[in-house]
Amino acid sequence: MSFTIAIDGPAASGKGTIARAIARRFGFHHLDTGLLYRAVGARGGDPVAAARALTGADLTRDDLRSNEAGQAASRVAAIPEVRDALTDFQRRFAAQEPGAVLDGRDIGTVICPDADLKLYVIASDEVRAQRRAAEIGADPAATLAALRERDARDSARSAAPLRPAADAVILDTTEMSVTDAVTRAIAEVRARLRAPATRR
Ligand code: CDP
Ligand code: CDP
């Protein structure tokens, strides 16, 4: 049986950084599911058709990290048919041996409700905006506004809204370095790997 880790949370909370580090440490596969929605948004045209026709090559465009690409992603992500078109791929990815880490918004609630570990990563709006602005070379105030608009849209939508799963471990990284956050997350994985198998 493979080991599945779901990492969700608002924009730029540190999900991807933690997911990558866990994948590296345990030799698990990693999927940044936000890239799927960013690629659909960036394609333009009919988003449902774009989601159905998505290929790996679409995920490597170098303009996907901008605030604009994030906004386009959150608009198409509210469309149920877009989400449905991407579900099977994510579930197949999650089932890979020896394990998989997926980060996004609805991994613990919709895509992998039976994940072995669910983390919900948060940080203050201001800290998240500072981190993302530094990362992509954008204006901090504009980035703060963009993140807030996106979080509000992601939380308010009826299809797979942003919210922690009931059994998620909340990790607040506001005051944490990357190393601290990764260390905490790895400790949670180790505890689950050691735990007697209930379902696995
Ligand atoms: O995947 P998500 O959008 O949640 O965030 P990320 O891309 O992993 O992190 C956004 C930025 O915050 C990156 O440049 C990280 O290096 C930085 N950061 C972090 O993720 N965690 C900390 N505790 C401190 C900084
Ligand atoms: O890295 P960051 O947290 O800024 O964004 P992302 O993970 O790349 O996601 C971009 C947008 O895609 C989000 O604002 C959501 O609207 C959407 N998304 C989603 O609806 N479900 C997911 N599992 C992942 C992303």
TrEMBL record:
Keyword Plastid set for record: no
Domain Cytidylate kinase: from-to ranges: 5-40, 54-189
Database matches in CDD domains: CMPK (cd02020)
Cross-referenced SUPFAM superfamilies: P-loop containing nucleoside triphosphate hydrolases (SSF52540)
Enzyme Commission code(s) on record: 2.7.4.25
Binding site for ATP: G9, P10, A11, A12, S13, G14, K15, G16, T17
Gene Ontology CC entries for this record: cytoplasm
GO biological process annotation, one example: pyrimidine nucleotide metabolic process
The entry's keywords: ATP-binding, Cytoplasm, Kinase, Nucleotide-binding, Transferase
Name of one Pfam family that matches: Cytidylate_kin
Entry keyword Nucleotide-binding: yes
UniProt-annotated location(s): Cytoplasm
GO molecular function: ATP binding; CMP kinase activity; dCMP kinase activity
Record field: catalytic activity: CMP + ATP = CDP + ADP; dCMP + ATP = dCDP + ADP
Family according to the record: Belongs to the cytidylate kinase family. Type 1 subfamily.
Protein's name according to its UniProt entry: Cytidylate kinase
Organism: Paracoccus jeotgali
Gene behind this protein: cmk
